[in-house]
Amino acid sequence: MRLTESKGIGRMDYANRSRYSSSRLVRVLALLAAATLGGTAAPVFAQQATFADNVLSIMEASVGETAYALELQLGFDGTNYDFSVLAAVETPVTGATDSSTFDGQVLHVPRVDVGGIDHYLNLALVNGDPITFRLASFGTSVESALTQATSLYNEAVESQIVQMRCIVCHVKGGVATGSALHFVRGESAAQTNLGVFSAFVNGKDLQRSDVLSKVRGIGHDGGLQLTQSSTDYAKLAEVLQLLVDAAAE
Q: Rounded CA gap, 168 and 37, in Å?
C-alpha cells in the first residue's frame, strides 16, 4: 500500500463532518488527563504525534524507506474506533526515536502525549480504499533508558559540557590522546559523542564512577571541570546512569 495525499478532503471539509466527544476517546484510551467531559479537546503536544479536535496528527510515519506526515480523523460506529486518512504528505526521514512506523498491517504510534502522559497506539489497517485504521491496542508508553539518556544528553550535556569543556583535550590528536574518550567537534556531533560515552561506560557502574571522578579532578590531568554540587554534574551523572540502565534492558 502506498499512502498518497487524500483527494477531496481538506480542513474545511472535515471540520463539518460529525464529531465525537474528545472525552470518549479519553475514556477508551484511558487518557484520563485530557479535556473536560463533553468539551472540545485542546491541542496536546508530543514530539511526533498530537491529538486535537478528533484529529490525530503524526509528523513522521515510516513506510519502508519513505516517510509521511499524516492526519487521521477519528470516527466511532458504536463498536469500533476508526481513523480515516485525511491527508498524507511525503516528508524526509529523520529516524527520530518516537516516530511512527507502518509495517504493512499495523500503524505503530509510540507516543501521543495527553495531559502530560505518553501513550502508544497500534492502529490496524482495515480498509485500503479509503485508507482506514482501527484502534487495535493502546497503553501507557514507557521510554527506554536510552531514549531518556539521548534526550537529556542533547538538552543538557553535549553543548554545556562536552563541547565547552571536554573537547578541549578529549579529541583525536588532542592532549588526552591516551584516554578512551575522544569526542567530535561540531553542532551535529551529539549522537556520536553520546555513543563515545556509551561505549566507555559499557553498562558498568565502575566506568560511570570513573568518568564522574575525573570531571571532579580526581586522577584527571585536566583537573577539576565540574563540582559535585553543580547542575551540570548532576545532569552528566544522570545521563551516565541511564546508559548503565540501558545496557541492562
A: 56
